[in-house]
Amino acid sequence: MPFSLNKRGEATIQKGVNITKSPIEELEAKGKAAKAASRRMAYLPSEVKNNALRNIASDLLAKKNRILTANQTDYREGETQGMGTAMLDRLMLSTDRLESMAQDVLAVAALPDPVGEVFDMRTLPNGLQLGRKRVPLGVIGAIYESRPNVTIDISALCLKSGNAIILRGGKEAVHSNNALAKVVQEAIARAEVPDGAVQFIENTDRTLVNHLLKMGGIIDLIIPRGGAGLIKFVTENAAMPVVSGGIGVCHTYIDRSADLNKAVAIAFNAKVQRPTVCNALDTLLVHADIAERYLPLVAAEWAKAGVEMHCDERALDILKPQPSLKLVPAIDKDWGKEFLSLAAAIKVVDSLDEALEHIERYGSGHSEAIVTEEYEAAMRFLNEVDAACVYVNASTRFTDGSQFGLGAEVGISTQKLHARGPLGLKELTTYKWIIFGSGQVRP
């Protein structure tokens, strides 16, 4: 018995008996469980992993009432606390969004298993045969804000790529994330995935993040998803490698040779289709030779969706104040701003060179696009723009793991090591060298 009764019949805890673990002890226990599970995950058969994923997809719909009830609690609390429109949109779940999440999980299940792939095999002059074999990273820690779908996306990709995962969502989505994590854990248990492969940190105490970032002996990679503050904090304090990104200051440059119909449709989609996400358009750069014809067309379409246009002097002079347009004089802070709303900056430039210089100065390395009919301009843009994803004649809204055929993503990396752009299955693996000999010794 961990307790006894005193003379008054009151229960007292016996000294030296640990009834409950502290939050730090619980975190470390979950970390150790994930580490133990990762060793088995590394050679788990593909069919077991795929069965687990199919279970998750099925349970997302079968248990949608539980999930949506939890999400409504988070949403109401977010509204009460004055959460902005962009954050509320990221937080919200619906039947349609759950169905989309389930389809993404099934898409991951249908992808080839990257684990065990052998590549670059060759024979050396001494007869040694060597190559590389793809293996999981081990234990991945994910720290994320607002978007509960991340719980499912990261779990699915980590399971398929043979990694264990420790999930730590933000307090604004704690009920949603907890419900989703339980769905995942129940679903994978039925498929006989090793116990501990998916861990969720329920406690929202921020001090746990500090401790999580120091667990370098357990966690092999940290992936932060959220605002600039979170990413900066994780990058500066983690004791293990970090793959960061997601801050998207995305430009679309309308070149002088652009097809006007394409240019209007692309800019409208990039800004309006879902303005609260990182791959939405933030700044529209327009060549002076085409500005007088193009700007009234795109402004009229944006106005139908209620887009607020932060225009430089030349753009304002072309568009001129009128009741149907939400025009605002641009200020310095508008350049390089991630709006995450129905707002965008507009700048008229005199050349492709000026557009490239602007993107170099204000871009975040996420997604950049050019609309042009000139091959040379397109190639220069592709070659000279330093970003994870560079588009010719297409919307930046395609920067997404699902849209790229990766099934889902754990994030969009805007750095250059070890991966860039949408992080899918292969980006969650590394490799080891394998060498076959016939008795060779080094002379």
Level-1 CATH class name of the largest domain: Alpha Beta
Q: Average pLDDT across residues?
A: 93
Whole-number radius of gyration?
Answer: 25 Å
Helix content: 40-55%
Structurally, the number of domains stands at: 2
Provide a descriptive summary of the structure in words.
The chain has 14 helices and 18 strands. β11, α12 and β12 form a beta-alpha-beta unit. The strands form 5 sheets. It has a 7-stranded parallel beta sheet, with helices on both faces. Helix content is 41%, strand content 20%. It has 443 residues and is an alpha/beta fold. α2 runs antiparallel to α5, α3 runs antiparallel to α7 and α5 runs parallel beside α6. It has 2 domains: 240 residues, 3-Layer(aba) Sandwich (Aldehyde Dehydrogenase, Chain A, domain 1); 155 residues, Aldehyde Dehydrogenase, Chain A, domain 2 (3-Layer(aba) Sandwich).
Brief account:
By secondary structure, the chain is of the alpha/beta class.
What are its keywords?
alpha/beta, Aldehyde Dehydrogenase, Chain A, domain 2, 14 helices, 7-stranded parallel β-sheet, Aldehyde Dehydrogenase, Chain A, domain 1, 443 residues, 4-stranded parallel β-sheet
SSE layout:
Blueprint: E1 3-5, E2 11-13, H1 23-41, H2 46-62, H3 64-80, H4 85-91, H5 95-110, E3 118-123, E4 129-136, E5 139-144, H6 149-160, E6 164-168, H7 174-190, E7 198-200, H8 207-212, E8 221-225, H9 228-237, E9 250-254, H10 260-272, E10 281-287, H11 288-305, E11 308-311, H12 313-319, E12 326-329, E13 343-349, H13 352-362, E14 367-371, H14 375-384, E15 389-392, E16 412-413, E17 421-422, E18 429-436
Parallel strand pairs: 5-6, 5-8, 6-7, 9-10, 9-14, 10-13, 11-12, 11-13, 14-15
Antiparallel strand pairs: 1-2, 3-4, 4-18, 16-17
